[in-house]
Write a structure and sequence with these properties.
By secondary structure, the chain is α+β, with helices and mostly antiparallel strands. The protein has a single domain, classed as BirA Bifunctional Protein, domain 2, CATH 3.30.930.10. It has eight helices and eleven strands. The strands form two sheets. Strands 1-5-6-11-10-9-8-7 form an eight-stranded mixed β-sheet, sandwiched between helices. A three-stranded antiparallel β-sheet has the order 2-4-3, with no helix packed on it. Helix 1 runs antiparallel to helix 3 and helix 1 packs across helix 8. The chain starts with 10 loop residues before the first helix and ends in a 20-residue tail after the last helix. The structure holds adenosine monophosphate and magnesium ion. Adenosine monophosphate binds next to strand 6, strand 10, strand 11 and helix 8.
């Protein structure tokens, strides 16, 4: 992150830029043949995540609804209906207060979540790279002067983005490799082939049995993770096997497994944190500056 003496750019300007980012990403995806579907806010199944958060569920007539942590499972089901879908999905993750000052966490945030039937990881990397170029050009056209005042490093990313293998980076730089690489980078880059223990059961296991056919996009200048995604598991037995490795109980995912049994298509996709994108574009200290009514971990807010 670039240190500025005082915040340049008003909240109004930041929110206008955020609104333009949302609009242009949607338009780009529509031009690419995507259908926008409405978000799911409560469901008996939601993303188990790879880290623990406080419970956000509601008892309802003897059942339990969870607030959506991500729409991963619904995306896998939705590509039965449409080949390419996206959602601006409100996610509630009651993160613990040790995440209060990362600048990257809110307990309520929005993901632009997208999924493509029969796609491979490379299709998603290519799509996102082109979307970033499109969206950054659009921001430059409409808000170039304001954005450059806030963010002296603002530039249209060059594609293809660099690809860094997780285990190679870990070996070279140690456990802090993501932050080290993010701080020294001047362009977004992909982190690929993430080890199985770092991810949830639904990301597809590669032939090596150790790493996944997945990726994160990492922002430069220390802004850290932007996107997570990958190819998905869709075969019933493989999913059960992966749940077993992770200690996820099949009975907690009954609704999902019933659908998997009926058949879900192979797919790949990703989720982009909207507040993190705004933070990166506008060079903000925290995602809390990237939206109205921001909810920072560990605090109550309106
Ligand atoms: P995940 O699948 O958990 O990696 O989440 C997808 C994307 O959502 C991440 O790459 C971030 O951009 C964003 N994200 C995840 N958790 C949070 C959070 N607590 N606050 C804000 N954005 C988040
Ligand atoms: Mg992630």
């Amino acid at each position: 992150m670039i240190k500025v003496e005082k915040q340049i750019g008003t909240k109004t300007e930041v929110l206008q830029i955020s609104s333009e980012l949302i609009s242009e990403m949607g338009q780009f995806l529509r031009r690419e043949g995507f259908i926008e579907i409405l978000p799911v806010i409560i469901s008996p199944i939601t993303d188990p995540l790879n880290h623990s958060v406080l419970d956000a569920s509601i008892d309802y007539y003897g059942g339990k609804y969870s607030l959506t942590k991500s729409m991963i499972f619904h995306k896998q089901l939705a590509v039965r209906t449409f080949p390419k879908i996206f959602i601006f999905s409100p996610n509630v993750r009651l993160e613990t207060d040790d995440k209060s000052s990362t600048g990257r966490h809110l307990i309520e945030f929005t993901q632009l979540d997208l999924e493509i039937r029969n796609a491979k990881r490379d299709d998603i990397l290519d799509l996102i790279e082109r979307m970033f170029v499109d969206v950054f050009k659009d921001i430059d056209d409409k808000f170039g002067e304001i954005v450059r005042k806030m963010n002296p490093h603002f530039s249209i990313p060059s594609i293809p983005f660099k690809r860094v293998k997780y285990l190679e980076a870990y070996e070279k730089y140690g456990p802090d490799f993501e932050s080290i690489l993010s701080k020294s980078a001047t362009e977004p880059f992909w982190l690929i082939d993430i080890p199985i223990k770092e991810r949830e059961f639904y990301d597809r296991l590669d032939g090596d049995g150790k790493t996944l056919v997945d990726m994160d996009l990492i922002y430069p200048y220390g802004f850290g993770e932007a996107i997570s995604g990958g190819e998905r598991e869709y075969d019933y037995e493989r999913i059960l096997y992966r749940m077993g490795l992770k200690g996820n109980k099949p009975e907690d995912f009954e609704w999902y497994l019933e659908e998997v049994k009926k058949g879900i298509p192979p797919s790949a996709g990703c989720g982009i944190g909207v507040e993190r994108l705004t933070r990166f574009v506008c060079n903000l200290k925290s995602v809390a500056e990237a939206r109205l009514f921001a909810k920072v971990p560990g605090k109550m807010s309106i």
